[in-house]
């Protein structure tokens, strides 16, 4: 499964190297209804604490949120009934401006910086 300090368990299946996944220029992705962005600070090196599966459409489906991980802590900090609580079945569609490729999303999740993670509800 995923290594300590890593984004998710699926990253072990993705080779390192090559394209860094950053979009050229200032292209922006069109947002879909229901999307929201969370901000997670990984500068401490802590794990996001998610298991996710890459999808053919270039997103990551969240399968599990690990208790005590950064995403779990995000959820705990949200007010009861918040529409920004991350749940299994949601999809990561963009991380720090990277999108259209699960490989790019995983690479962005590995970085130990402040992450802007855009999610969309499940199907």
Q: Treating each run of at least 4 consecutive H or I residues as one helix, how many helices?
A: 2
Average pLDDT reading: 83
Shape: globular
Class by SSE composition: alpha+beta
Element order, helices and strands? EEEHEHE
Strand order of the largest sheet: 1-5-4-3-2
Low-confidence stretches: 1-26
Biggest pleated-sheet summary: 5 strands, antiparallel
- Strand proportion, as a percent range, falls in 15-25%
Task: Provide the gyration radius in Å.
Answer: 13 Å
Give the strand tally: 5
Distance between the termini: 25 Å
The portion of residues assigned to helices is 10-25%
Give your account of this protein's structure:
The chain is α+β, with helices and mostly antiparallel strands. It has two helices and five strands, in the order E-E-E-H-E-H-E. The chain has a five-stranded antiparallel beta sheet. The radius of gyration is 13 Å and the shape is globular. The relative contact order is 0.28.
Short description:
The chain is α+β, with helices and mostly antiparallel strands.
Task: Name the features.
single chain; 123 residues; alpha+beta; five-stranded antiparallel sheet; 5 strands; 14% helix; disordered N terminus
Task: List the topology elements.
Blueprint: E1 36-41, E2 50-54, E3 60-65, H1 70-77, E4 91-95, H2 102-110, E5 114-120
